[in-house]
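call fold(seq) -> tokens
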Amino acid sequence: MKNPYSEHLHMMNRRHFLSKTSLGIGGMALGSLLGCSAPSKEETLTGSATKSLPVTHFAPKAKRVIYLFQSGGPSQIELFDYKPLLKKMRGQNLPESVRQGQRLTGMTSGQSSFPLAPSLFSFKQHGQSGAWVSDLMPHTAKVADELCFIKSMHTEAINHDPAITFFQTGSQQAGRPSIGSWLSYGLGSMNENLPMFSVLLSRGSQRPQPIYSRLWGNGFLASQHQGVQFRSGKDRVLYLQNPEGVSAASRRQVLDVLAQMNDMRLDDFGDPEIRSRISQYEMAYKMQTSVPEVTDLSSEPDEIFELYGEDARKPGTYAANCLLARRMAERDVKFVQLYHMGWDQHTDLPRNITLQCKDTDRASAALVTDLKRRGLLDDTLVIWGGEFGRTNFSQGTLTDTNYGRDHHPRCFTIWMAGGGIKPGITYGETDDFSYNITRNPVHVHDFQATLLHQMGIDHERLTFKHQGRRYRLTDVHGHVVKDILA
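ret:
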């Protein structure tokens, strides 16, 4: 039997040397542009290349992000954007001077009228900040002074898939890297035993719009930067456990030999995906121990379940995922993405949004409270929000007790907390109809630029050359919203 190392050495020739040298020079140039230190051969083989972390462009205010994405488009009119004028004008047609010919979806474009529909729910001001919060969100109201409400978010996308894709990747077209992948590429990991980019999914009681795995995909970045989905079943991460009859020692031996073979292949071809494959095998091996530990909530005291709600004891619920996100934050997972589905309320909105708030309000507030108690909120950026808002007019028939709302990209509300964001403020304003922005608009790219800024990244400098063009999360747009920075 031939020695693979001997064969590998015989393959070396002048052409091979020059091609590998050029790749090495290119790699060093890229590393200098990004502020990255290249991993050594030993680090690549052992999967410990994450020890050599890149240098941030400036001092970060946040070490990690927990993004509570509310998929489907929560209604700002029912939750945070109090508009008493709508009550006075209930049932009247939306003035054309307000609508200004705005594009509508196919679900309401055929309506003969657009009757204004005020919220059926009451609003009060809360905390020293005096933030307006609906009675649907009593727990969020209690932490209002920790939050920064941005009421002037806007987007071009008017349908779910492109709108969610836009928030997560910076483009309405699929195929670009997600926010977590960009952070993984730019910053590396602080934890060698858990994925830097972790994804959790939960469903509301209403039949939700689907969520696609490409939303946490790596796009044109190396595959090691894609998000890892945690599930609620027996296998919390798929394909992690050893096959029956394979011991941990055997697994380790296989990985060692496989790493050596992949390393030789890497020397031959210089394909970065080979390095990704090595690191992913190593991460999977470490996760066999770390994943069961982080997902085991049995060590949490009863007071924690009282804080998050009893649903936190049920794997896969929004409350359980919020608690799991806190446990990941404690272990320095850099980007935790939660998707909660079910906010798409075209009909029967009063009933359905009540159920959604019941699922999410308590746990969202508990996460902020829990992080603050543990001293983690200062350097953890928590984000709550969806892909767009809802119309101020009723989709379909408006009655005394029922109505629906269509998609509305022109203005909607999100909130942020911790991670160097000013607490207890409301930023941006909408008109009396919650239809147009009147002050301090914040675009999706501005939001993304601000998120990266809090992590110590200049959004214009974190780029990747693909097919002859340099790409970035914010494309060719975006400004940091400095007024909300602490």
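The two ends are 66 Å apart (CA to CA).
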